[in-house]
Amino acid sequence: MHRIIYNIRMALSLHRLRTLCEVARVGGIIAAAETLHYSPSTVSQQLETLSKEIGAPVIERVGRGVRLTDVGRIAEEHAKELLEAEQRTLAAIEQARQGLAARLTIGVFATAAASLLPVVLQELAQRYPEIIIESEEVEVEDAVEGLRDGRLDCALMLDYPDAPEQWSGDLSVVPIGIDEIHLAVPTGSGLGQGVNLAEMADEDWILSGTATYYGRAMRAACRAAGFDPVVRHRLDATATALALVAAGLGVTFTSDLAKTFNPSQSVDTIRLAKPLQNTIVIVQLPHTLKRPTVLAVHDAFHTAGKSLGLVSLGLAEL
User: Fold this and answer.
1) Distances from the Cα of 315 to the Cαs of 24, 98, 166, 280, in angstroms?
2) Using one digit for the tens of pLDDT, what is the confidence trace for 21-46?
3) With CB atoms counted within 10 Å of each terminal CB, which end of the chain scores lower, N or C?
4) What is the pLDDT of residues 138-156, one digit of tens each?
5) What values do phi and psi take at 96, rounded to 5?
């Protein structure tokens, strides 16, 4: 009888191991899908693929829910060590270098890409020329996915008090500054400064769609003021929305950061009696904060925010 020896080599995906850890942390696929900003089917597919990589199921059905198998619990226990080791390795390598040098990919929202990002890149080019920054415009859901699968090193996001983002426990959120929100109306509207948002209930609105975090947050602000906005034009791009305001087709929200998009001759910016604000935050995996290059990027965004007149929140982690 011939003795057959199987040489098994597993190529485990850190991305799928992160998903397994989140399922274990929150206790189910649906709950994990919500915190990971995935669909439940995507989470299930990732776990199925991980089971194939390992060679045994990592979850099993129990009633209407799931639980980790013995193999899954072992994988989850060691996955935490692997994920932490990945970030510790990057941090240690950077700390051992004589100078700050790395290629970092940052997720940004459109308004920050037009206002904050150019100032940040100039700051870094002067102080740390060997830090190479690549940027990608992303929505919240894509940013969180990009952070977990390693496509993004950190992401600049917005957090609105009227629709706060429920950040997952495995993410680190560092506030950079406050961006105040105003009304943008056609020039000659007759509105004075300090208007109550409730007075705008009968206006035609130009807002981002409900598929975006910004669109949902701005609708929440209107509902808090006592009305549901009549949205005539659903546009995600701030510059396009302001162009329609300039043409007299409705009103929208703008902010201090969005000043770069304002058509100066045909749009008036009106302060609200009850200020609306959003918090600019940098989101990343916790161990990323040990990387000197990432901390340099944080400092550059903080400095850029102050130079643009944003209310500073320091660099304390939320």
Assistant:
1) 31, 25, 20, 11
2) 888 877 888 888 877 778 888 899 98
3) N
4) 877 778 878 876 778 999 9
5) -80, -20
